[in-house]
Amino acid sequence: MNNLKFGIFLAPFHSLRENPTQALARDLELVQQLDQLGYDYAWIGEHHSGGMEIIASPEVFIAQAAAVTRHIKLGTGVSSLTFHHPFILADRMMQLDHMTQGRVAFGMGPGALPSDAQMLGIDTLKQRDMMLEAIEVLVPLLKGETVSRTTDWFELHDARLQLGSYSKPHIEMAVASQVSPAGARAAGSHGLGLLSVGATTSGGFNALAANWEIYERKAKENNQVIDRSRWSLVGPMHIAETREQAMANVRHGLGEWITYFKDVAALPIAPDEGDPAEALVESGLAVIGTPDDAITQIQRLEEQSGGFGAFLHMANNWADWAETKRSYELFARYVAPVFQGRSEPRLESYRWAAGQHASYMKKVEQAIGNEIAKDEKEKAENKKR
């Protein structure tokens, strides 16, 4: 695949021992670095409890990130639809579409943390149905349509956004999916992009082909046009020059990350026993290794899924700050070009030049010999004078 895009899915995950103000500042710095390195996307999460995923408003973060970046697309990854009135959320996203001049994307989901829903008095069992109800009005609103709808948790009466879309034909939209088919069904039904958040977990990896089948089937049933370029897969990575160095790097924060997933988060990705770093690698859930290991993981995902449009790093802060930034840099230098075809013309030029080298060298040697002979002749003629 020569047009794969890359980015991050930034929850974020920050140690409970860290200064949260500085942690948020580093998140912003990371997005700036990714913009400079040529990454395509940064999807920003929304969470309200648990202490580690500390961005409450992806829209606020995106507004500041847009001001200090130039190219990278900034998405809500994801907005928890069940926590907001859909009209207000649509209005905010439309404003961001203008403020970023089309560099914003709208990622949607029901809300990842059960503890968030509990604080708001929302029944976790109802969240996916609530998400579907919200999507049914958000999509037409963001396409400039007038909507009326009454549900048991929101009402709309001839509702229409006062701003039209800056992006044409409309803002990019995507729905998050883990193992449950709800996200794929909603994305396909409305012709939206699909974000497979747990693509490298055992359940998520095994469900990739099934999720695409659901996505494609629901799109066909609803006369929607989709393609694999709008499918993003998410998985954690940390790379270094050697596997040994990568393993040493992640000792910094991997343990606390795993404890958080066991104690708080709803995504079942933490290994139960053994060395956690080794277990994550052996299961295929994570890459902790070299750029070549990252290439192998993406090829594995391509084979399992049948093809997709973007790979997103699940930003993790397993390593310290310097090594974390180094990992993203190594990926941009040595992994991304393999899947984007940017080095192919250079390789072809090199192979072509190398193939002609022997014949060229003969001509070069002949040319040098001719010049030497010319100079000798000139010397001889000067002596005769």
Structure, described:
50% of the residues lie in helices and 15% in strands. The protein is α/β, with parallel strands linked by helices. The chain folds into two domains: 5-342, Luciferase-like domain (TIM Barrel, Alpha-Beta Barrel); 348-384. An eight-stranded parallel barrel has the order 1-2-3-4-7-8-9-12, surrounded by seven helices. A two-stranded antiparallel sheet has the order 5-6. Strands 10-11 form a two-stranded parallel sheet. Helix 1 (20-37) packs parallel to helix 13 (321-340), helix 6 (182-190) packs parallel to helix 8 (208-221) and helix 12 crosses helix 13 (321-340). The chain is elongated and about 110 Å long. The N and C termini lie far apart (70 Å). The mean pLDDT is 94.
Secondary-structure map:
Layout: E1 5-10, H1 20-37, E2 41-44, H2 58-67, E3 73-80, H3 86-99, E4 104-109, H4 114-119, H5 127-142, E5 147-150, E6 155-159, E7 172-177, H6 182-190, E8 193-196, H7 202-206, H8 208-221, E9 231-235, E10 237-239, H9 243-250, H10 254-263, H11 276-282, E11 287-289, H12 291-305, E12 310-314, H13 321-340, H14 344-355, H15 357-384
Parallel strand pairs: 1-2, 1-12, 2-3, 3-4, 4-7, 7-8, 8-9, 9-12, 10-11
Antiparallel strand pairs: 5-6
